[in-house]
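Weekly structure sync, notes
Attendees: PL, DS, HV (note-taker this week)

Item 1: ABC transporter permease
DS walked through the input record. Source organism listed as Neorhizobium petrolearium. Sequence as pasted into the shared doc:
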Amino acid sequence: MGRARLLSVARQGSGLKIRFDKLGIVIALLVAYGALGASFAVLKPNRIMQGEAKMILAALPAWAGWGLIVVLFLAAAASLFRTSPWLKLVAAFAALVALALAIGSAASFLTPAGNTYARVSPASGFWLLLFAFMLLAADAITRLKPPPWMRVLFLVLTAGGVGAILLSGSWNGLSIMKEYAGRADVFWSEAGQHVRLALGSLVVAAAVGLPLGILCHRVAALRAGVLNTLNLIQTIPSIALFGILIGPLAWIAATVPGAAEIGIRGIGTAPAFVALFLYSLLPVVANTVVGLAGVPREANDAARGIGMTDRQRLFQIEFPLALPVILTGIRIVLVQNIGLATIAALIGGGGFGVFVFQGIGQTAMDLVLLGAVPTVALAFAAAVILDALIEMNSRVLIGARSA
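Item 1 (cont.): predicted structure, written out as tokens:
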């Protein structure tokens, strides 16, 4: 009897298998290379010259360096196996916080006392580790399948954490923050201009594109011509389109009374705004057409059966049912415009691109990051918020149909 029990336990033990996570293996390899094979920070004699790369243990005090490595490898171990998504999320959060604190500490540790010219910047290892643990966090959130409000809450908490670190002064020694310190007023002015370009062009495109999309849906003869024209505009490179608009807008400013007074000029905000507006039209119009075409025929038939007019059917039946698809087009436009607004700086349109192109001209990569990092963060936040809005709207529609 005892022998049979031993055999049973042995069989159960032999059936136990360690389950590895495929994405976790990739993340663990990235972490191993980023922590042990790549430099963590770069010490430069000034903002322009090349610097000396430092590994983690050389960039931090011994206790902080070993502590960071332990945290990174524990978090990587959590990613390696098929465990609870909450455990993976907590591990990613802990690693990201450790990285954020460590890079600020590296700036203080590496900068020589009294040297106001030396600059410390994150190196390839830091960016690789940041990418690995952001990927782990995104994978964990995807597996948790949180409701829309929780995804927005995660975004708010992340923004709050970054804001707390910025306000604490932990990153003040980093080169990118020194670039910001010398341009704080200009930075927020250009940030406002960037948002105005991206959002303003979206609002005007929605005001024009939604009625145009409805018209194309109702009048099939117009559909192909309008969509083909907008497709053609979409194929023009952004810099080329900015250049094409300089001549006509300069002519309008010179010949139309009052045009220059309201801001229409060959260079500056006007061509940037018009170009972003033109790029925005195709996603708005096309998604409006697709959304309206996808409205079930039964819904329209039922609306006609109860005596609804065409106008009532459009605003009470068709448009609400097509709204998730239309919002998807608006999401595409907003993220696209946030990125394209960077190029507007080439023709005097302002925005975060001012820092990007100034940094390229001065070979100051931290100044480039001062424009690039907020642009990426803004686009990411816009995508998360609009994705949540689209999902909430879809759930409302599903609930209404089931009711």
